[in-house]
Amino acid sequence: MASKKINLLKFTTLIGLSVIVLCAIVYGSSRGDKRLPERGETAVKETPINPIKINVPLRDSIVNFGMELLGTPYVEAACSKDGFDCSGFVYFVFQHFKIQVPRSSSQFEGFGKEIPIDNVKKGDILLFLSPTRNVIGHVGIVTNPKGMESDFIHATSGRDMKVIISSLKQEGYKRRFVKAVDVLSVL
Fold this sequence. Notes:
Helices cover 30% and strands 20% of the residues. It has helices at 2-30, 58-67, 86-96, 171-176, and strands spanning 79-80, 83-84, 113-115, 125-129, 136-144, 151-155, 163-167, 177-182. A 6-stranded antiparallel β-sheet has the order 3-8-4-5-6-7. The protein has a two-stranded antiparallel sheet with strand order 1-2. Strand 1 (79-80) and strand 2 (83-84) form a beta hairpin. It starts with a helix and ends in a 5-residue tail after the last strand. It is α+β, with helices and mostly antiparallel strands. The chain has 4 helices and 8 strands.
């Protein structure tokens, strides 16, 4: 029984090697280069590589980049991959695409084009009151636009203390929501 297995393995190997040699010959002749490289030579054909470009809309690119930062720790006044505060996160994401936005959440109050919450799109920015004062104190980026049930990505100083996705359905955010702004359609 063992000798049958060995013979079958030898036969399969022989067929496999024959196919490889045949493919190499066919490939060489299809390139127009009839000469196979001799021992010690390396055949090199310079073929330009044309990468496939996928045209992802800017709004999707912004959200996708933000999603890469999920779980990054919340660090007060920080703006790097080591940690973010809420406005530092929004600033970092938009800077990646060379889009100027304020660095401080309070500066968003008069920034961008205010839009109705029912018209938000991915990449729009949501503004919230501070939990302790009656001023803009928190910002996030819309990831899944659904009016007052929209999801957004942000760096939270709450219980999670990291970049997370939340929903306007959550009572704490619904109560503190001030407005949505579009900074992309004015570019």
